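Ticket #4471: structure export looks truncated?
Reporter: QA, pipeline team
Priority: medium

Steps to reproduce: submit the single chain below to the structure queue and open the exported record.
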Amino acid sequence: MLTTAIGVSDHIDQRQAIAAVLDQCETALAGARPQAGILFTSIIDGDFPYFLDKITSRFPGIELIGCTTDGEIVADQGFVEDAVALLLLASDHLRFASAVACNLSTSGAETLPAAVADCRRRLDGKPALGIILPDGLTTIGLPLGRLIQQATGNTFPVFGGTAGDHYRLEKTYQFHNGLIYTDATPLLLISGDLTLSSQVVTGNEPIGRFYEVNRVEANVLHEIDGRRATDFYDELLGGFSDKLEIAQFPLAVYEPQGHDFCLRDPFLLDREAGTVTCVGTFPDHCRVRLTTISREDILRTAHEANERILAGHPAGRPELVLLFPCTSRRHVLGTRTNEEFAALHQADPPQAFFGFYCYGEIGPLAPDGPSGYHSDTYIAVALSERS
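Actual output as written to the record:
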């Protein structure tokens, strides 16, 4: 059995908050010894060294990863912000190993495979699952999906999300054991008899025809459909192209012969250069379509994904559901954010779930496919240890 313990606190006193989190987790563990943990916090000016010291002192030898966020998601409460949230995992049969890859923006092609290899050396057997939490700002222009695929191959699924900074868009932090990083990614690999099921959905609806991307450099669009990228947006969106609302019209991006799409959010227009900068890179010779989004579509797709996770998990009721939704969904939902987890929150018996609002999401579109980088998606991963 996979034993999970979740603690959360938004107490204004940070030291009291982490103390409450640790006490909640210890009570839930009921004497079990945790081998791994995940820490999420949207307190961007938090006393991170103190948090990490208290966790690693209370649970020596734990494999701990984590990051800053744009809000935490926990069972019982749903969405919380300005909080500290901790998930602890214990098992008699699963094995856990963590590592950190530094300098992602300059050396990720070398440091990420090295971190994965370090974890694999310390595991018994082949990994069954990887959880990864990269910096959400320094990686905006990186082919993050390709880097993860090159580091892990397609031999086991990798899920996660990129770190946030409470939507300040200034600097994010990543945690590994007792240390704090930026421009890095902590990762946790799990081996053993683990049953997985997942859902990767978006509420965005592609509209209109396909357009050829004629020129793109990493995440910077220069020319679409024979026009400068800014002219393309002006023609199709009019006044929206000079406002922040442009981010609410992400592009559906298709491989040259593909039918599935990933989403890319535009966030910066350079009218002099005629370019549009997006979150995430583009494949060569891709096609794009505009998309629209609504609160009802977001909630519908999340509800359907949660219902499929609860009803279709191969081992029956999941022992844990990890959630990695995009922060753009939260900002569209506003006061209705908690409805995104209603099916999990109202499950009977209660369902353990834990996650955070990400700047980008990581996971495979197909169960046996490679893990890619997404925007505007809702990713749910159900876990159970096989008996």
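Status: closed, not a bug. The export was complete when the record was re-opened. Leaving a note from the reviewer for reference: The CA atoms of residues 48 and 309 lie 34 Å apart.
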